[in-house]
Specification:
The protein has 711 residues and is mainly alpha-helical. Helix content is 74%, strand content 0%. Belongs to the SEC10 family. It comes from Oncorhynchus mykiss (Rainbow trout).
Length: 711
């Protein structure tokens, strides 16, 4: 049996009374509720509970006494700790008072020391000045006597001290009257220049040896001499020796400045001034000479190479200037570098845009002329206000054949190679313009280049080809006409896409934020509209030729006996030969239109061609009279035409041929069913006169008195 204390320890935290009782009962012999080795004994369990309760009471009293003892001890220690804290506070207060007294005493002593120092300085400064004045007077007397006896002037190792003395004597000598001290002033000046020369030589020698410390000492001494600027010049000249061994002057300059920048900071007291002077020297000598040599040799002889060199040199110079901004060159280094660049290129940039335009004009004309020469073509002059122009306007507006058409033998006089060359030259011009133009002149210069592109590409090439193409379109009644204008349309469309891409990619960024944008867009719109008028005119006349060719096929191939066969019992129900040839021709032309155009233009042109095709067939069918079997053949022809109409992929054209097919049913339907057919879905909305006209084409119209069905 466990004691209460042991049982407490065996219980899990937190304490649970029910669990505690269960453990006690389980550990008591005969106390188990489910039987086991011994039977359940309530008396023994009660006795065990009573004994355990007594033990718990004793344990409680024991713990309570221990708690009271610990509480008493805690109160006693708390009082002792409080007394210790009070003692420490009193000690701290006393120490703080002592510290304040010590601080006041230190302040008092410091004040006295400062006052004493001021008094000593007030006495010592005049004394030092007097000593310095006496020393200078001694040296001055040596110059008066004409004999320099002092070691400082004769010992080369004391050149630094001698320089300090002679610099001060030189300042004093300048205040003396010339008539009485001319000789001594000359001697001092001579010694001044002699020491200055020796210091510069010493600096140069130290620079050659790479002795940075000695260079720094000499530069500090020379700082108060007039020859300090000469010392800087010598340093700049000497550090460039051997720096330009390669052919790339820009890369050599960047490496030189990178190397010198660190050394300048160690040697000179104002490194930013020295570095700026070095860069100015390089720009005004090395770079300017390099630019002049490169540009002057090609300016007269090779304008193309001159413009390329100018662009390359200016680009590399500005890139070099960007690298140099990482060095300390003073407060406004960007303005400083911009002025250096302007001084080099100003004479070239002033005439740049005129040379660019002259070159682009000459180069574009040469590209075009070389192309026309390769075609053995003598370009026709495009005069304004002439009889020829009046004829062309009448031709465009009326489609009247004013004179014979030109045979181009299938040549479109458009070349993608020519266009690519023109656009490439213009792209290079835009790039140079962007780099070389002043920001205020950039939009104006870019616009002038754009006008040259319009002149040579759009007018001299595309517009000229359209003029030739229009002149080459045969009349509508020509036989076996070759229609090359659609090839012109296809190539002109491709070329204009390239032109539009360059407009957006290269011109727009240069003018997008300037008033020139409006002018450019207006000019582009004007050119587009001008070409669209000629394209529309040419397409319209080409469609007329297509319809004329169909009409010629029908006129030569279609016979009156096709629809009134002599032996109606021995006729094959199939389309006529004329219909087959027309359908083949139409399919070929539809395919040509699809290849020549893109986007909505395909549907627009095919719609117009389909409407004219339908009109031609409609008028053609009304020229014949039809027997019953002939009507079936006409329906076969129209069905074949309708198949060709499906190739157009235009709902309107297909609808027109569906209606025409329904009209042809009037040629074969029984007389009693005419009214019913005319009331059908496809014919009910047509004009009654049109329906009547088709019925009149029947051979049996008069015999069967079919006119009464329309009364």
């Amino acid at each position: 049996i466990l004691t209460p204390g042991q049982l407490f320890i065996s219980c899990r935290e937190p304490f649970d009374a029910d669990e505690y009782i269960e453990r006690l009962a389980w550990r008591t012999p005969g106390g188990g509720s489910k039987g086991g080795a011994e039977a359940f004994d309530p008396k023994r369990l009660l006795e065990e509970f009573e004994n355990h309760i007594e033990e718990l009471k004793h344990l409680d009293e024991k713990i309570q006494r221990r708690v009271e003892k610990l509480e008493h001890q805690c109160h006693r220690e708390a009082k002792e700790f409080a007394h210790k804290v009070q003692d420490l506070q009193r000690s701290n207060q006393v120490a703080f008072q002592h510290f304040q007294e010590l601080d006041e005493h230190i302040s008092y002593v410091a004040t006295k020391v400062c006052h004493l120092g001021d008094q000593l300085e007030g006495v010592n400064t005049p004394r030092q000045r007097a000593v310095e004045a006496q020393r200078l007077m001694t040296y001055f007397n040596e110059f008066l006597d004409g004999e320099l006896r002092s070691d400082v002037f004769n010992n080369p190792e004391k050149i630094k001290e001698a320089a300090d003395i002679i610099q001060k004597l030189h300042l004093i000598a300048q205040e003396l009257p010339f008539d009485r001290f001319a000789d001594v002033k000359a001697k001092i000046a001579s010694k001044y220049h002699d020491l200055e020369r020796q210091l510069i030589q010493e600096f140069t020698a130290a620079q050659r040896r790479g002795e940075i410390g000695r260079m720094q000492e000499v530069a500090a001494v020379l700082l108060h001499f007039k020859g300090y600027a000469h010392c800087v010049d010598v340093y700049i000249k000497q550090c460039q020796e051997g720096a330009y061994m390669r052919s790339d002057v820009f890369e050599d300059t960047a490496l030189l400045c990178q190397r010198v920048n660190k050394q300048v900071g160690e040697v000179f007291q104002s490194p930013e001034t020295v570095m700026a002077k070095l860069i100015q020297n390089i720009f005004e000598n090395k770079l300017q000479a390099h630019v002049k040599e490169k540009l002057d040799e090609t300016r007269r002889s090779d304008v193309e190479q001159y413009l390329k060199n100018l662009y390359d040199l200016y680009t590399r110079t500005t890139a070099l200037a960007s690298k140099l901004t990482e060095f300390n060159l003073g407060s406004d280094k960007h303005t400083f570098l911009s002025k250096l660049i302007k001084n080099i290129f100003s004479t070239y940039l002033e005439s740049y845009i005129e040379m660019e335009k002259d070159y682009l004009r000459t180069r574009s004309a040469m590209i075009l002329q070389r192309y026309y020469d390769s075609k053995n073509h003598q370009k026709r002059p495009q005069g304004g206000g002439s009889i020829q122009e009046l004829k062309e306007r009448i031709r465009q507006r009326t489609n009247l054949p004013l004179g014979p058409s030109i045979d181009t033998h299938g040549e479109t006089f458009l070349s993608q190679e020519v266009v690519v060359n023109l656009l490439q030259e213009t792209r290079h011009a835009f790039e140079r313009c962007n780099r070389l133009s002043d920001p205020s002149d950039l939009p104006k210069n870019a616009f002038s280049i754009f006008l040259l592109l319009v002149e040579h590409l759009c007018m001299d090439h595309i517009d000229y080809a359209l003029e030739i193409g229009l002149s080459a379109i045969p009349s509508a009644d020509a036989k076996n006409a070759n229609l090359y204008f659609l090839d012109v349309v296809q190539q002109a469309n491709t070329i204009f896409h390239l032109f539009d891409k360059q407009f957006n990619d290269h011109l727009m960024p240069l003018i997008s934020s300037s008033p020139k944008l409006t002018e450019c867009l207006h000019k582009k719109k004007e050119v587009i509209e001008q070409m669209e008028v000629k394209l529309d005119t040419g397409i319209d006349r080409t469609l007329n030729c297509m319809v004329g060719q169909m009409k010629h096929i029908l006129a030569t191939e279609q016979k009156k006996t096709d629809f009134r066969p002599e032996d109606e019992n021995n006729v094959m129900i199939q389309c006529t030969a004329a219909c087959s040839k027309v359908c083949v021709y139409v399919s070929r032309q539809v395919e040509r239109v699809r290849k020549s155009m893109d986007g909505k233009n395909v549907d627009t042109v095919l719609t117009e061609l389909g409407v004219r095709f339908h009109r031609l067939i409609h008028e053609h069918l009304q020229q014949y009279s039809y027997s019953s079997m002939g009507g079936m053949l006409a329906i076969c022809d129209v069905a074949e035409y309708r198949k060709s109409a499906k190739d157009f992929r235009v709902p309107l054209v297909l609808q027109l041929f569906d209606t025409l097919h329904a009209l042809c049913n009037l040629l074969v339907v029984a007389p009693d069913n005419l009214k019913q057919v005319c009331s059908g879905e496809q014919l009910t909305n047509l004009d009654r006169n049109l329906l009547h006209a088709f019925v009149q084409l029947r051979v049996d119209y008069r015999q069967a008195r079919l006119g009464r069905h329309f009364s």
